[in-house]
Amino acid sequence: MQVTIKDVAREANVAPSTVSRVIANSSRISQKTKERVRQAMDELGYYPNVHARSLANRTTQAIGLVMPSAATKTLQNPFFSEVIRGISTKAHQNGYSLYMTTGVSEEEVYEGVVSMVQGRRVDGVVVLYSRTDDKVVQFLQDSKFPFVVVGKPFSDSSHVTYVDTDNYLAGREVTKYLHQLGHECIAFVGGAQDLAVTQERVGGYKTALMEEGIPIQESYIVSAPFMTTGGAEAVKRLMSLEHPPTAVVVSDDMMALGVMSTLNEMGIGVPDQMAVVSFNNLFIAEFSSPPLTSVEINIFGLGFEATNCLIEQINEDATPYGKRVIVPHYLVVRQSCGGKSEA
Amino acid sequence: MQVTIKDVAREANVAPSTVSRVIANSSRISQKTKERVRQAMDELGYYPNVHARSLANRTTQAIGLVMPSAATKTLQNPFFSEVIRGISTKAHQNGYSLYMTTGVSEEEVYEGVVSMVQGRRVDGVVVLYSRTDDKVVQFLQDSKFPFVVVGKPFSDSSHVTYVDTDNYLAGREVTKYLHQLGHECIAFVGGAQDLAVTQERVGGYKTALMEEGIPIQESYIVSAPFMTTGGAEAVKRLMSLEHPPTAVVVSDDMMALGVMSTLNEMGIGVPDQMAVVSFNNLFIAEFSSPPLTSVEINIFGLGFEATNCLIEQINEDATPYGKRVIVPHYLVVRQSCGGKSEA
DNA sequence: TATTTTCGTGCAAACGATTGCATTGATGCT
DNA sequence: AGCATCAATGCAATCGTTTGCACGAAAATA
Question: Which keywords are on file for this protein (chains A, B) (predicted)?
Answer without folding.
Answer: DNA-binding, Transcription, Transcription regulation
